[in-house]
Design goal:
The complex is a heterodimer of chains A (115) and B (111). By secondary structure, chain A is mostly beta strands. In chain A, 0% of the residues lie in helices and 46% in strands. In chain A, strand 4 and strand 5 form a beta hairpin. Chain A is globular and about 40 Å long. Chain B is mostly beta strands. In chain B, the strands form two sheets. In chain B, strands 2, 4, 5, 9, 10 and 11 form a six-stranded mixed β-sheet that branches. A five-stranded antiparallel β-sheet of chain B has the order 1-3-8-7-6, with no helix packed on it. In chain B, a hairpin with a 5-residue loop joins strand 4 and strand 5. The chains are: A mainly beta (115), B mainly beta (111). At the A-B interface, strand 4, strand 5, strand 8 and strand 9 of A face strand 4, strand 5, strand 9 and strand 10 of B.
Chain lengths: 115, 111
């Protein structure tokens, strides 16, 4: 079946503009995660959704970042008033139930460049 | 929180050589995954291996949970093995899948 998909693949924006990044998880996966990867770094956790439970937003770096998920489907990550330090690859992952003992599958990422 | 250290940071090989990548973690884990990030940035799942040994073709992995480390073995390396290898863990006792990543090992395989 189809893997995790993300759009857009690349996004170039000007400092101060808002951007929206989209993630489509694997069909049937109830858990969805957003991570950020800065140049030359490992991935940092941003936010976690599982079913209809309240999301874990503990990794969001500032209140300019927010994310939504409708049911067990698409998620959008919004960055308001973008700053140059927001430039990174934003990766989405999904897993079947969201428990700690299962495989997470990653999408191809959105490469964000803030000028 | 849990700390993940990978070594070596960089590795350069000739095609056909074997290699071992190491991942140390600071606390008990109930999830450990190895990923290969290809030159286009895609993270590819290699192994889910919180304990024990697994093999998949030229790749194998061993996790010794009691000693808090995991090893990824690449045999008869090929140029397509180039990229960054990440180890990621979930601390034991965590009820959901927030992965903590190491900084990665950059592998370059020359023809």
């Amino acid at each position: 079946g189809a893997g995790v998909s993300q759009s857009p693949s690349n996004k170039v924006t000007e400092k101060g503009k808002d951007v929206e990044l989209r993630c489509d998880p694997i069909s049937g996966h109830t858990a969805l995660y957003w991570y950020r990867q800065r140049l030359g770094q490992g991935l940092e956790f941003l936010i976690y959704f599982q079913g209809n439970s309240a999301p874990d937003k503990s990794g969001l770096p500032s209140d300019r970042f927010s994310a939504e998920r409708t049911g067990e489907s698409v998620s959008t990550l919004t960055i308001q008033r973008t700053q140059q330090e927001d430039s990174a690859v934003y990766l989405c992952a999904s897993s079947l139930y969201g428990g700690g003992q299962e495989t997470q599958y990653f999408g191809p990422g959105t490469r964000l460049l803030v000028l | 929180g849990i700390q993940v250290e990978q070594s070596p940071p960089d590795l350069i090989l000739q095609e056909g050589a074997n290699s071992t990548l190491r991942c140390n973690f600071s606390d008990s884990v109930n999830n450990l995954q190895w990923f290969h990030q290809n030159p286009w940035g895609q993270l590819i799942n290699l192994f889910y291996i919180p304990s024990g040994t697994k093999q998949n073709g030229r790749l194998s992995a061993t996790t010794v949970a009691t000693e808090r480390y995991s090893l990824l073995y690449i045999s008869s390396s090929q140029t397509t093995d180039s990229g960054v290898y990440f180890c990621a863990v979930i601390a034991g006792g965590t009820s959901y899948g927030k992965l903590t990543f190491g900084q990665g090992t950059i592998l370059t395989v020359h023809p």
